[in-house]
Amino acid sequence: MSxxxxxxxxxxxxxxxxxxxxxxxLIWGGTFLAVQTALQWSGAFAFVGLRFAVAAxxxxxxxxxxxxxxxxxxxxxxxxxxxxxxxxxxxxTLGLGHIASSTSxxxxxxxxxxxxxxxxxxFCQRPGWLAWAGVALAxxxxxxxxxxxxxxxxxxxxxWLTIAATVTIAxxxxxxxxxxxxxxxxxxxxxxxxxxxxxxxxxAPLAGEAPPQWQPLLLVSVLALGAATAxxxxxxxxxxxxxxxxxATIIYAMEPVWGxxxxxxxxxxxxxxxxxxxxxIVASVLLSQLSAHKATHAPA
Length: 300
Known about the structure:
Layout: H1 16-29, H2 32-38, H3 44-63, H4 72-96, H5 101-108, H6 111-123, H7 129-150, H8 157-180, H9 185-206, H10 216-239, H11 245-252, H12 255-265, H13 272-296
Subcellular location: Cell membrane
Membrane topology: Multi-pass membrane protein
Keywords: Cell membrane, Membrane, Transmembrane, Transmembrane helix
């Protein structure tokens, strides 16, 4: 008697990587005030360099026993992504010196539809319709959060700097998913963080920045944001081993939601448009999880 082999049941997909990226966006949403405060006593390049230097030292302490296994892919990939990170952080900071934060938020939000397009164009990975629907919801939510002022765009220096930063952010997300799968998250993050620190500190005097004025709040900001940056980069390198770039992008859109919630708790008003934008972004994240569930349980 012949037997019919039934397909093996697939183990349930772990939500931990996705939830870890949600945690990353929560940390991002809470760092804006600290960055604004620190820039009173430090130039942008110097502050980014100091922040990433602290992050690199912490990453070194965390993964020092694994350094012997550093391979060529982790080194070259880490340096490449680190250079992109250097441009994204510093271009966005420089752009904020010329445009309103609402305009910056709108232009930065363009990375949401840009990531799946880059994935498709660079790596021939076309997202499914549910992923595109999630991207559309997230982008619509970001438009509402940016507000009417963010839509009044005149392409001056600040806008072009921010657009360039947005392209590098999208490219970083794509490359993380591309490189992370076969690499150690701690070692990759260490190389990325050290690259940003060295390039930013080297650029500060070339940009004519004065040395930082060491105040207690600046020191606290550097240390706290350095620790947060180390955690963020390690988690991103680990989580994007299994979370595709398009789904990660939708999750990253949660950042302004947390920022708005923290501002509301601090006494800032939340308009109906911003509440609606936040709801659309949350819906997009839930839709991305439905897309992932369908992909995991698709018949072989």
